[in-house]
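Input record, target 12 of the design panel.
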């Protein structure tokens, strides 16, 4: 990230071939750690097969992002297209950060809940004789609940 911050001027002029992309490039840099942490938390919920928090906060994130883009781009457009584009990129960062701030407490709360296996599933596992029976039991459990 530090290299990207100090090398943004060179990146925007040589690789993006447009000096106006400099501010947008600076605005997108903070999204790297935000997306990294957010992806870990969303992966936790996917692993627990609980899609409700992910879906809810994705909708909230998109609403916040679109609302901010609408107002911030209109406010920054008189200053130039580079500032309007930077505002749009910054709204993406803010939207993802807003989603992370709302998803993190749900993650902390859900970690305190205990994971429970159904008694019938434990009985089936303990009564298995060979690996084929184990495979069939798991297959039935996954696909034919």
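The sequence produced for target 12 reads:
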């Amino acid at each position: 990230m530090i290299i990207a911050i100090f090398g943004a001027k060179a990146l925007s002029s040589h690789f993006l071939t447009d000096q106006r992309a400099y501010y947008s490039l600076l605005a997108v840099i903070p999204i790297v750690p935000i997306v990294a942490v957010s992806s870990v938390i969303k992966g936790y919920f996917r692993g627990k097969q609980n899609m409700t928090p992910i879906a809810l906060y994705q909708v909230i994130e998109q609403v916040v992002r679109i609302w901010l883009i609408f107002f911030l781009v209109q406010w920054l457009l008189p200053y130039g297209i580079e500032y309007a584009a930077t505002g749009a990129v910054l709204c993406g960062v803010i939207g993802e950060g807003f989603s992370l701030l709302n998803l993190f407490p749900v993650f902390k709360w859900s970690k305190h809940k205990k994971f429970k296996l159904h008694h019938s599933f434990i009985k089936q596992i303990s009564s298995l004789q060979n690996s084929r029976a184990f495979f069939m039991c798991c297959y039935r459990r996954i696909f034919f609940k």
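The two ends are 46 Å apart (CA to CA).
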